[in-house]
Amino acid sequence: MIISLRSPKRLAYIAVIILLPVIGLVVMDQRIESGVEPTVQIEEQRNPEMAINRDLQQRLTENTLEVVSFFADYRIKRDQVRGERMALLRQIAANPEAELKARDVAELKMIALSERMEKELQAETMIKSCGIEDCAVFIEDSSVTAVVDHLKSEEDSEKISSVISRVIGRKTADIHIVVKNAN
Question: Is 174 helix (H, G, I), strand (E, B) or coil?
């Protein structure tokens, strides 16, 4: 498509089409950087308690985001490492030049890794069903570690250990619960 820029009217339309989104982004960016809209500032001047509540809510949100970020980052890194490991195992299993025993071992490790991933996901789901908002479970050869965002009581820890034990099939003595504090 060829557009002639000789017509001033067309040039004006193109300029408007290009500049409007840019101006909108700049205005939105300035609002985001200030963090508070002008109408909120006026209300806070009238009612100082509103400013205190907003500040407290912002701090709680920041702490919550830190915890959520921890769990999200952990899952992303865990998936990356496992994806790399799975890709390597697939290469070994698919390599016709590799020994038959090596291919069989690679296939068995892929199956074991898949089962481990499934059990971790099941355990995380069961922990969340116990009232824990977020968690991450990591199954190791000799133990299981569960990182949770909070525990209300020691009873919660025992309940989580029991749930993990049933899902994964390990003794509760081999299960470690770690609380991720946002502070």
Answer: helix
